[in-house]
Amino acid sequence: MFIDVAEIVLASGRGGDGAVSFHREKYVPAGGPDGGDGGRGGHVYIQADYNLSTLMDFRYKRKYAAQNGDGGGPRSRTGKDGQDLTIKVPRGTLIKDADTGRLLHDASGPEPFLLLHGGRGGWGNRRFATPTRQAPRFAKSGQEGKTVKAALELKLLADVGLIGFPNAGKSSLLSVISAARPKVADYHFTTLSPNLGMVRADGDRSFVAADIPGLIEGASEGAGLGHEFLRHVDRCRLLLHVIDASGIEGRDPLAGYDAINEELERYSPELASRPQIVVANKSDIWPDGGVLETLEKYCAPRAVLSVSAATRQGVDKLIGAVAAMLDALPPVTVFSPELAPEAHAAPKERDFTVSRGDDAVWAVEGAWLERVMRDVRFDDHESMRFFDRTLRRAGVFDLLEARGVQEGDTVRMYGLEFEYVP
Question: Do the beta carbons of residue 374 and residue 380 sit within 8 Å?
């Protein structure tokens, strides 16, 4: 089954906690603190895999998490880093933030891309030793990893896209110009998913062609199969507009040509302006008359080439014309990641809020404050002094007093309650 969209949750690993430890060794009195740092949490990488062609693997498993870092140990031993996680996707997959739609990465190259950093490991208590604080009994917790809900969207990396109505002969044409073997039959919508084929021109030149499932009127609004797969021609440098010029299906070739281009315009004006070669197929069963001349005049200035996929008539000329045009066109589009919102719109590192509830209790909240409180040992005098200094430097007490806190009022910080004393 061909799956080209998926939504998954990715999470990097949490950093390991720093250790609280003191050196203990015979004949070494007052060895001092030797708690080691925690290990880094595992990173999350995205890597394009040239052997994958669908997002089928993500249909059943939706959550992926890198390993957490280990905690630090005594004797200044650093915890083991968490194992990194590499998510392999088909080449040409776009990774977007599902909540904002922001493009995070275009997996079009072979290099792994670091999508999410693992959390940093916390410091052990040896890091907090100073000449005046020689026996710190607290350490720092590891940082939390990052989580993102990622929307995956596969856009095939092809130089040439074959478009046209069902039964125009796109699959047959792909099968004779490349080694691809798509399903070919005499009924509409034989092709239910895009097919790729490598086409070799003269010399060392080659290009990739994609057979896109047939479009019909209303495809840009979701009719038929075309709307689901129009994304796969977004990267194509050149479009081969395949027309059944024989009229055997009872469709006017000129009206069909206009209908397909109108659907492209509705889907994406930029895509509709992409260079096209009109391929007048089934030349072996054309009716008598100037079919080719009529098409050339109607489709000008676009080139019109007559071929017969059934008899290979005109196929070599078509391959040569496509290769020559590709030489003059820019390379396949690789989308650039979108920048995150402006820094000033993001909360500052030590932002916090002060509010007073109906129970007359003052509440202080902030993401950084919750992290700091995980590091504090409230039964240790040095640790409490560190906590007090941190609050004063962040301006917590100044804001409380500016809001009108009085001596003896109750202040709550994430489960910790105390009476305010100036």
Answer: no
Cα–Cα dist 363/245, whole Å: 76
CB 93 within 8 Å of CB 57: no
Separation between Cα atoms, residue 422 and residue 411, nearest integer Å: 12
Which token pair is 206? 């080659």
Structure-model confidence comparison of residues 43 and 185, the more confident one: 43
Reported CATH class of domain 346-419: alpha beta
Kindly compute the dihedral angle of the four CA atoms of residues 369, 375, 381, 386, in this order, to the nearest 10 degrees: -50
Residue with tokens 């995070």: 104
Classify residue 251 as exposed, middle or buried by CB count within 10 Å of its CB (0-12, 13-18, 19+): middle
CATH fold, domain 1-154, is Spo0b-associated Gtp-binding Protein; Chain: A, (2.70.210)
Domain ranges within the chain, ordered by starting residue: 1-154, 160-327, 346-419
The hierarchical CATH code for the domain 160-327 is: 3.40.50.300
Neighbour order of strands in the sheet with 303-306: 195-200, 206-211, 160-163, 238-244, 276-281, 303-306
Residue with token string 């809001």: 403
pTM above 0.90, yes or no: no
CA distance 297 to 8: 50
First to last CA, the chain: 68
* CB-CB contact of 412 with 361 (8 Å): yes
In 83-221, alpha helices (H): 170-177
Under DSSP, the state recorded for 178 is S
**Cα distances (angstroms) measured from residue 242 to each of 211, 280, 332:** 10, 6, 21
233-277 confidence digits (pLDDT tens): 788 899 999 998 887 777 788 888 898 888 888 888 888 889 999
Q: What angle do CA 227, 230, 234 make, to 5 degrees?
A: 150
Structure letter (DSSP) for residue 283: G
